[in-house]
Amino acid sequence: MTLNIFFLTITITKREISLEKALHNENAKKILEESRRKVQNHIRQY
């Protein structure tokens, strides 16, 4: 009888986001929300 044992190590590290990347993401979210509002307003007019 053979018993095979596998050891698995998982390392989780917290991802560091640079200030530049965070600002870019925030601006992208604002632009996306503004675009959604424009589309909704355009659809309501018809």
Oligomeric category: single chain
Helix content: 55-70%
Largest sheet: none
| Derived structural class | mainly alpha
Q: What is the number of E strands?
A: 0
| Mean of pLDDT | 84
**Rounded to an integer, what's the Rg over CA atoms?**
24 Å
C-alpha geometry = elongated
The low-pLDDT segments are none
The amount of beta strand, in percent, is under 5%
Explain what this protein looks like in three dimensions.
- It comes from Ureibacillus aquaedulcis.
- Pfam families: Bac_small_YrzI.
- The protein is mainly α and 46 residues long.
- The protein has a domain at 16-46.
- 59% of the residues lie in helices and 0% in strands.
- The chain contains one helix and no strands.
- It has one helix at 19-45.
- The longest helix has 27 residues, at 19-45.
- The chain is elongated and about 70 Å long.
- The model has no long low-confidence stretch (mean pLDDT 84).
What is this entry, summarized?
The protein is mainly alpha-helical and 46 residues long. The chain has one helix at 19-45. It has a domain at 16-46.
Chain-wise SSE layout:
Elements: H1 19-45
Spell out the key features of this protein.
46 residues, 0% strand, YrzI family small protein, mainly alpha, YrzI
